[in-house]
Amino acid sequence: MNKIHETIKAQLVDAMRAHDEVKLTTLRGLIALFSNELIAKKSADNFIDDASALALIKRSVNQHKDSIEQFEKGGRKDLVKNEKAELAILEAFLPAMMSKADIEKIVKAKIKAEGIPDAKKAGQFVGALMKELKGKADGADVKAVVDEMMK
Length: 151
Fold this sequence. Notes:
- By secondary structure, the protein is mostly helical.
- It is built from seven helices and no strands.
- The protein is globular and about 55 Å long.
């Protein structure tokens, strides 16, 4: 399935027609990432598969979040505003993530089944949870819930 890549290419045309510079720049960046991935894989396809597209979008989201944090520390509010606008566009392509309350229910169930892990094995516990929740929950949220429950 190549629906994400096709959707982004279609939205690029819409952004051009609407003269939406932020969306246009963001979508062009994604298409460039996708093209680079196709070249790296030496693929003859014109479109990247959805799993790879989601992975690249998540990576881009993380980069934008990091940039926002760095710009805020540096007092560059003008750059923060632009990064947040691009981040909102990127996050629209990602599936909805679980809330902390939903993650907490799963963590409680896993603790009930396996017992409370000691502090040394908390990382392994989070890793096991992330495998179970891959693509459904943000890793930082899972870690925060586990840390809170370990107190």
